[in-house]
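Input.
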Amino acid sequence: MHDQILDMHFWDNVRPLKSMLGSMTLVFDVILNAPDLEKSLKKLIEMDGWNRLGAGLRAKPMNSFFISVPRHFERERPSVMFTEEHYSMPMKDHPVASQFPKAGSHPSIHPGPETFRSLAVHNESPKSVTGFLWKKNPFIHLHVVTFDDGTLVSLLWPHVMCDCIGWAIILRSWAAIVAGRGHNVPKFNGYYRDAMERLGKTPQPKKSVLETRLTTLAGVKAKGGCIMRSLSFVPHKMESRIFCLPAEFLQKTYGAAVSAVPHDFHLSEDDVITAWATQILCKRMPTSSRAVAICKFFDSRPLLHEAFSKHGVYVQNASFPYVTRMTAASICSNPISNVAKEVRLAFNEQARRDQLLSLAELMRKDHIANKIPLLARLDAHPVIFINWNKANIWSTVDFTAATLPSGEAEDNGDTISPEVRARPVYFHSDLVGEHDLSQHEVFAMYGKDPKGNFWMSASLRRESMRCFEREFHKISSK
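Output.
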């Protein structure tokens, strides 16, 4: 029987996302039953509506994507590709697993996510989005690695499937099935109809503030009112690391920033960490008048009431950028509280319904959505923040029902103490292979672990990474 052919939603089918292959690794300090995880995830993806996520990825001429959903999932066309490995040793004895970061008493720097790819991406899995096209590979690849004292659960997917919030929905629903609460899995909306199909097509009375604040270069304005940064430039030496900010350091830094702004002005921890990280990055150009574009993203779902029904969920890409613009010199010379305040003001101004509608209209012009819109001067330096914090991975995932007795590869009838919860003790994300952000400075914010330590990773230019290494050494020496 022929597959069901479905269009890719418009805001999924844009160039930056089409270049990205996402990966996520969750670390557990208990042994999980790998077949149970496979069975439960497949059960979710084979549910009505959710089977859209079991589709194969296809491409039309001009590289426009569409998807091909099997009428029935079977061994040759699974809803989820599953692989597993087992190492008869504790994680500390494995040459790679032993390097997974652990929090300390001071801010610390650890090897970047690519260090762990050999444990996260199976040899049989695609290493680029191209590997998904015209193959029998479904969207999601699940790879489980067990040790004598823990488990790694890794997921691989093309970014065109969904954003961070979409993954939060998947993980929450998967955990419900693991726990035997399949009745709690929400209705999947958007199987046929793109809820955001009309977004940006209706002319808006007000322009996006990002468009109206554009400057010109040599008096010439780019098409569609958007000046873009060219992606064709001399490659930089990029390095990646994982950073941990201990709970005490986070509380101290956040408290100092909050006390420096008016009591009725809200600053989030995310605002303050964004400012802190950007300020360190800019220390390599402390007196420069060059504009810095701090690009972050907000979830549009709560703002589009007429498009997104409250009855059900939408697993797709629905995140839009908001941009804070300051000069490098201003970022370096101001206290962190002032930079954080600018980040919050940009969010308050741009993450509104009227501005979202205007931004979507702008991004549809001249196919701007198919580029990386920085909406700033041509010479602006972009700093991009991907916010996994909103997905609440640490508290969303609970695989307790799939836990095996410690040191046992199979269930021998023993029971697990009810006090033991199979929640991630650590996780990180990764972008595998070349993609449109490869040469940009990008932070991934993971949020706080159960002990209050804040985790993030970054892919930065070599000279920027040296700034972080010096700053972390200075903090640790105090």
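The first helix runs from residue 15 to 18.
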